[in-house]
Amino acid sequence: MSGNKTVLADILQVREVKQKAISLIGLQGVRLEDQHELFRGLESRLNEIDTKSNSYPYLVITPDFRPVVGVEAGSFGKVPLGMIAYTIPADDYVVFRFEKKHIGDFWSNICSNENQASYNIDLTKPRFERFSPELQPSGMVEWHLPVRRT
Questions:
Q1: CATH code, domain carrying 123
Q2: What is the 8-class DSSP label of residue 145?
Q3: Which residues form the AraC effector-binding domain (predicted)?
């Protein structure tokens, strides 16, 4: 599978960042497939989140593959009924930036043992994507995957 790294290298811009904890309020699903429904639900209920810092959603994939879709909150305050408070942990993250059209190639390749070792990522921790006005209009995606501690 040595070709996978080459394929990824051709489509990715990669950098490492130290990320502070991010407090979110939003919705959690049961399966990865729930994410689209969660985005629609969050959009229709944004006005209920009094402490939101902005309206740019995050998609978090937890280690047990339960998606969380939420927005940054200055504080958790009162969490609306049916929503959750979730904290993306402070950590070092490898940020993968690529065109949205490559999302399938990214996920089908990044999860290989070879690529996890090569990029030093830890898929046993939460990983996330932030949807922002800087990225989405240009068709770009940035996934933040935690660095593996040795």
A1: 3.20.80.10
A2: E
A3: 12-148
Is residue 107 pLDDT above 90, yes or no? no
pTM summary value: 0.87
pLDDT tens digits along 46-79: 999 999 998 899 999 999 999 999 999 988 788 9
Percent of the chain clearing pLDDT 70 (strictly above): 95
- Beta carbons within 8 Å of 132's beta carbon, 6+ residues apart: 56
CA atoms within 13 A on the CB side of 2: 0
Query: What is the domain count for the chain?
Result: 1
How far apart are alpha carbons 9 and 12 in whole angstroms? 5
Q: Which domain holds residue 68?
A: 2-146
- Are 134 and 21 in contact by the 8 Å Cβ rule? The answer is no
